[in-house]
What we know:
The protein is an alpha/beta fold. It has 16 helices and 14 strands. The relative contact order is 0.13.
Amino acid sequence: xxxxxxxxxxxxxxxxxxxxxxxxxxxxxxxxxxxxxxxxxxxxxxxxxxxxxxxxxxxxxxxxxxxxxxxxxxxxxxxxxxxxxxxxxxxxxxxxxxxxxxxxxxxxxxxxxxxxxxxxxxxxxxxxxxxxxxxxxxxxxxxxxxxxxxxxxxxxxxxxxxxxxxxxxxxxxxxxxxxxxxxxxxxxxxxxxxxxxxxxxxxxxxxxxxxxxxxxxxxxxxxxxxxxxxxxxxxxxxxxxxxxxxxxxxxxxxxxxxxxxxxxxxxxxxxxxxxxxxxxxxxxxxxxxxxxxxxxxxxxxxxxxxxxxxxxxxxxxxxxxxxxxxxxxxxxxxxxxxxxxxxxxxxxxxxxxxxxxxxxxxxxxxxxxxxxxxxxxxxxxxxxxxxxxxxxxxxxxxxxxxxxxxxxxxxxxxxxxxxxxxxxxxxxxxxxxxxxxxxxxxxxxxxxx
Length: 449
């Protein structure tokens, strides 16, 4: 039964993130949509960490409440379960009409938020980004007792939700200045971007092996001897010598536990035609990088086979084609030979790099075709449009509120879960950057590679 909202009171939503809100783009999008399109006051309850997007920080209807660090130091299974619930009481956020939480993590978030919603008489919505037990199974194995307990916990408390939103399936190395105008160099390296969480579900070694193969195959194709002086190669490039295959500069963004391990592996590769830079960018800078790049690479593979990578959505929103690791439902997002390509092995990825970058930057027709497809994908649907069509009616229905404007073609309640499948991840991000000269702002890329 829907909760009736008192006349004259502005509706309120509590968005719960048991993690860093700055690294949770999906929940940032939800918060902005609830405030701007839902006309609601929004309280975000999250851990501290990196700054959320400027649009959240400057929105007067969005209020961010950081969890106390002292509580996070409490250990033990029982206190972990109690942590988030106690935090709600300490924060004393105003009475919400609805709680929205992303899963995973499931423990203790689902139980804590369900209890909080019951205590405060609010509705409880779970946005299923993935199944937490499948992630835990990557390190422990699906048959481990801990994974089985986690599965029961996730299933039990997930069913208690009132609704479930489900996912389906100046002079730089790149530019030169002539008479005050900045131009892209014809012999510039190609810029490739990959955003990773540096976790086991994204096998970064595939990318390293593929770049090593690219490095060796280019040398063989061009008849270059690896004993050739590196300095001579660089001088030839600076002097305008054209190459059939460009050098590649990979910018890897993200934070995670395996980052240091792979950075050490990169150093040992001694690549001559490929270079890597790792960095963590502010929310405002990330779309500038995507809009300046030539190709995106996604290494994400779903532990459940159900969640689609938001990073690919961001890339398409900036008109960037993607080579993505293949898994069961990725073809719902990446359309082969339209907006990107799929690969299952490092050799396949190396083949794709060779094919796309042959003749770069002017004579690479395959890459140009994919860019057109990526731009069409990014402009065909926006987060705001899709959220208003599918998510807003769900929220309104749960809390018993009818908007003043007429809303057409709203799906019936019994169909919402099915119709949400394949929709929540096909949105254009909040920003779209197509001006490739934005790379001028990334001075860190200057110098030789």
